[in-house]
Amino acid sequence: MGASARLLRAVIMGAPGSGKGTVSSRITTHFELKHLSSGDLLRGNMLRGTEIGVLAKAFIDQGKLIPDDVMTRLALHELKNLTQYSWLLDGFPRTLPQAEALHRAYQIDTVINLNVPFEVIKQRLTARWIHPASGRVYNIEFNPPKTVGIDDLTGEPLIQREDDKPETVIKRLKAYEDQTKPVLEYYQGLTASPFIYVLIEY
Ligand code: AMP
């Protein structure tokens, strides 16, 4: 990297099932920048049994967000180790206070928002059916069973995981939208050069 090259500070946003993980890994494979995923960061802490990990587990198990002050401290602490790198943040910021705290610490150059229609995500996320006894997984689109709703080998009925049921998926997507709407509005309102807001529509 040349001496005059600037470091890129980027954020990627997108609902569960929007393809955020895939897009992020494509970007980080082709460009020299660090990928920091808040979910991975929390899961790492949980695995290591750190104080934050124990706290995070209690919230994640209840399907709740980690409190803003804890999450912000953790993310900013991690970013301190990456000052000499370009980075792409994934999963953080998730709320307005987190976005404001990040803004106070760093100038964000770009926000990529993957705007995938609810219907498309719902189709993707609800396409998975499993045979509970064996754990065999089918996907209605890519790997369908020979007969709809029936396991190929045993002839037993397939089920959908609680997480993959349309009503659960819709609830998760709605919660994501409610949380992140203020964050997106905040970024859309930032006009300071060279801020770039990228909206990718599917
Ligand atoms: P993810 O892998 O991004 O879906 O994150 C898994 C879980 O970690 C989420 O359901 C939240 O409970 C928690 N989490 C991840 N990122 C954040 C964040 N920025 N703020 C609060 N909680 C978070």
From TrEMBL:
Consists of three domains, a large central CORE domain and two small peripheral domains, NMPbind and LID, which undergo movements during catalysis. The LID domain closes over the site of phosphoryl transfer upon GTP binding. Assembling and dissambling the active center during each catalytic cycle provides an effective means to prevent GTP hydrolysis. GO terms for cellular component: mitochondrial matrix. Residues 128-163 form the Adenylate kinase active site lid domain. This is GTP:AMP phosphotransferase AK3, mitochondrial. InterPro entries: Adenyl_kin_sub, Adenylat/UMP-CMP_kin, Adenylat_kinase_CS, Adenylate_kinase_lid-dom, AK3/Ak4_mitochondrial, P-loop_NTPase. Signal peptide: none annotated. Keywords: GTP-binding, Kinase, Mitochondrion, Nucleotide-binding, Transferase. Belongs to the adenylate kinase family. AK3 subfamily. It catalyses: a ribonucleoside 5'-triphosphate + AMP = a ribonucleoside 5'-diphosphate + ADP; GTP + AMP = GDP + ADP. Residues 127-164 are annotated as: LID. Its main location: mitochondrion. Residues 37-66 are annotated as: NMPbind. Involved in maintaining the homeostasis of cellular nucleotides by catalyzing the interconversion of nucleoside phosphates. Has GTP:AMP phosphotransferase and ITP:AMP phosphotransferase activities. AMP binds at S38, R43, K64, L65, I66, G91, F92, P93, R94, Q98, R161, R172. It is found in: Mitochondrion matrix. Monomer. Pfam families: ADK, ADK_lid. Its EC number is 2.7.4.10. The keyword Kinase applies. One of its GO terms (biological process) is AMP metabolic process. GO terms for molecular function: AMP kinase activity; ATP binding; GTP binding; nucleoside triphosphate adenylate kinase activity. It comes from the Eukaryota. GTP binds at G17, S18, G19, K20, G21, T22, R128, V137, Y138, T191.
